[in-house]
Design a protein that fits this description.
By secondary structure, the protein is mainly β. Helices cover about 0% and strands about 20% of the residues. The protein has one domain.
């Protein structure tokens, strides 16, 4: 049934903007009217009405895509790409899988940790390149580090 903007037969016909999006306007007729949070921010609650509801990715993490839905995720050990079938699981892969309304989400839809060899104490980073690299002669083998104190001198 065609309706005028802002009109509906039943309030239950209205749907909330999904995770990672907010809807500041009334009378929106399509999901595209819900605006994605900008890179470096996430929104883990549905039905929000303001960009202020979008939260900064925490220190040690970045949000490379707009519309990030949470700050969750997990590491999974995998074989390096060039490894043979008997190789040990040594590489870590950041994954995030969640289902909402029969849809599965991917890792890029969450804040991801700064990579090994990098750190950051800044909130709301929007790219892995915003994470700061350890200085010359130093290494750091952990993800999601907050300062250069996590960088160790090379042996």
């Amino acid at each position: 049934m065609k309706r005028n903007i802002g009109e509906f037969d039943d309030p239950s016909d209205c749907k909330s903007c999904l995770l990672g999006r907010y809807g500041p306007n009334t009378g929106v007729g399509m999901i595209s009217g819900c605006i994605k949070c900008i890179k470096g921010k996430y929104l883990d609650v549905t039905g929000q009405t303001s960009t202020n509801a979008c939260k900064n990715c925490p220190a040690g993490r970045f949000g490379a895509d707009s519309g990030a839905m949470n700050n969750a995720g997990t590491w999974v050990l995998v074989k390096p790409e060039d490894a043979d079938a008997d190789a040990e699981l040594t590489e870590r892969l950041w994954t995030f899988t969640a289902e909402l309304d029969a849809r599965t989400f991917t890792a890029k839809e969450s804040c991801q940790p700064c990579f090994r060899g990098t750190y950051s104490s800044t909130l709301g980073l929007s790219s892995a390149t915003d994470c700061i690299g350890c200085g010359a002669g130093k290494y750091q083998d952990q993800f999601e580090q907050l300062n250069d104190g996590s960088c160790k001198s090379c042996p």
